[in-house]
Design goal:
DUF1853 domain-containing protein; DUF1853; ten-stranded mixed beta sheet; alpha/beta
């Protein structure tokens, strides 16, 4: 591997590092269970471990693990599978359960993403992963296809999913499967990753209460109101991406076989990109590396398309 190529991680490894080290998208002052510096440190540890290893082999192992899991065509499930694969390489953490369906008799109370033992701190934790790509409507954060509201998603996450580890049914499950973990309260964490997309020409909405100012950001434009080509003098090409390529930065030499469409300008890309859903598009700089990203949304957004 050449010195220049060694700077580019295989896609699966890049996505793992993005999950571990990218900034939280959700505001910690509003949602106190958000965030965990240990994940950033875990990413540094994995980077160091991988420096002298066969990265293509590691990426193939990660890809095989993800492919063997159910429903990984969904981006959130794919992210969870990659995180499980990464955690198993980190001696600090022991994974007790993943995607645990908690039941009270015949009733399913919900699903817990991760049950973790932190060996270094000597405690047990319940983690929920929130992977969010939302656009600002001027009043609230809306999904690119107009189907979801971020506030509602977070209320459900904080009020229901994260509370599952505080229930009698969870204590009963622990007694049966991990009795040593019943002593003491369980810590809870909301691991939030993603991008916040701001309408073209608008500043970051400081009045909103959900998204962190430090979150990774992109822009959002309606397909019938594209900005002129001259505002992107640093972009040498454009691609439209499927969901599995939404996480870490796009690198054309590595990822080109997965893109949905490619064009020299944003106007040309809009004309040929799939029309049936919002499109995440990235602009490529010198070397074919992503330098900007945004959403192309239908003309009625944030209303549901007619």
């Amino acid at each position: 591997m050449s010195s220049s190529a060694s700077l580019i991680w295989p896609r699966e490894l890049a996505d793992v590092l993005w999950l571990l080290q990218s900034p939280a998208i959700i505001r910690r002052d509003r949602y106190p269970l958000v965030g965990d510096a240990r994940l950033y440190l875990a990413g540094r540890q994995l980077r160091a471990q991988w420096q002298d290893q066969d990265r293509d082999r590691l990426a193939a192992e990660a890809a095989a693990w993800v492919a063997a899991q159910p429903r990984t065509y969904k981006l959130g499930i794919r992210a969870e599978a990659l995180l499980v694969w990464a955690l198993r390489q980190l001696p600090r953490f022991r994974l007790l359960a993943h995607q645990l369906q908690l039941r009270d008799g015949s009733t399913c109370l919900g699903e817990l993403d991760f049950l973790i033992e932190d060996r270094a701190l000597g405690r047990y934790e319940h983690w929920e992963l929130a992977l969010k790509f939302f656009g600002w409507s001027g009043e609230q954060w809306i999904g690119p296809d107009s189907k979801d509201q971020l506030t509602q998603k977070l209320e459900r996450m904080q009020g229901r999913q994260l509370s599952l580890s505080q229930t009698p049914a969870f204590q009963q499950w622990l007694q049966q499967h991990h009795p040593a973990a019943t002593a003491g309260p369980w810590q809870r964490r909301l691991l939030s990753r993603g991008f916040a997309f701001i309408p073209w020409g608008m500043p970051f909405p400081n009045s909103q209460q959900e998204v962190s100012l430090q979150a990774q950001q992109g822009w959002l434009v309606h397909r019938d109101r594209l900005p002129p080509t001259t505002v992107f003098p640093f972009v040498h090409g454009w691609v439209s991406l499927p969901r599995e390529l939404w996480m870490s930065r796009y690198v054309h030499d590595r990822d080109r076989h997965g893109c949905l469409a490619a064009a020299a300008s944003l106007q040309e890309l809009e004309a040929i990109a799939p029309q049936d859903a919002a499109q995440l598009v990235v602009g490529l700089g010198v070397g074919g590396v992503e330098v900007t990203r945004g959403f192309l949304v239908h003309s009625h957004w944030p209303l549901v398309a007619i």
